[in-house]
Design brief:
With about 70 residues, the chain is mainly beta. It is about 15% helix and about 50% strand.
């Protein structure tokens, strides 16, 4: 389902679609991390680096996405 949503978002990037995304954010200093929830617009999807860039500037790796929904 996440892959299908990413493909749809890729086709609609010019509209900067609004999404609700839940993802794992690893802790840079120790093992573990936290789950984050963001409501933002997608401005870039990079298939090479496997990242999605939000309007806020935050980059989310595809492998860390737990839930992704277009709003």
């Amino acid at each position: 389902a996440i892959d299908a949503c990413l493909r749809q978002l890729q086709q609609e990037l010019a509209l900067q679609p609004k999404v609700l995304v839940q993802f794992f954010c690893p802790d840079g200093r120790k093992n573990g991390g936290s789950f984050e929830l963001r409501r933002d617009r997608v401005v870039k999807i990079d298939k090479i680096s496997q990242t999605m860039t939000l309007q806020s500037g935050e980059q989310v790796k595809f492998r860390h996405i737990v839930q992704l929904m277009r709003e």
